[in-house]
Amino acid sequence: MTAATPAASVTSYAFWAPDGRALADFYAAALGWKVTEEYPDEHGVPTAFLVTDGTTTFVCYTAKRFKAPEWPRDELPFHLDLAFDDVGTAERRLIGLGATKPDHQPGGAYWTVLLDPSGKPFCISARS
């Protein structure tokens, strides 16, 4: 990096889903964060929802033509890794919030794969 190269920072992470509000509510509950803002489309219908803890922000968008990846067949451009003190309790809680647990579990004893309500995989593991 040279002195002329501007530094950048990540301002948010964006996620698409068939129901952006439902996905925002899921991650807010899963992480103990809050849905803080919503933004309408050109018709005034809320379609983007901000979820934050005050330092990190997720933007959950409603995308009418969203199609979840067919994991593990489809490669993923990215996914989330979430760490918890008690993985078993976290897994049960996340499933209660709307996550599902696929049969394919490549993480062995290291992590568990869950699917969020939009069908996208994310991993949970023990906090290190």
TrEMBL record:
Chain ranges of the VOC domain: 9-127
InterPro entries cross-referenced by the UniProt entry: Glyas_Bleomycin-R_OHBP_Dase, Glyoxalase_6, VOC_core
Signal peptide per UniProt: none
Gene3D superfamilies, per the entry: 2,3-Dihydroxybiphenyl 1,2-Dioxygenase, domain 1 (3.10.180.10)
Top-level taxon of the source organism: Bacteria
PANTHER family: CONSERVED PROTEIN, HYPOTHETICAL FUSION PROTEIN
Protein name, as recorded: VOC domain-containing protein
Species of origin: Streptomyces noursei (Streptomyces albulus)
Phylogenetic lineage: Bacteria, Bacillati, Actinomycetota, Actinomycetes, Kitasatosporales
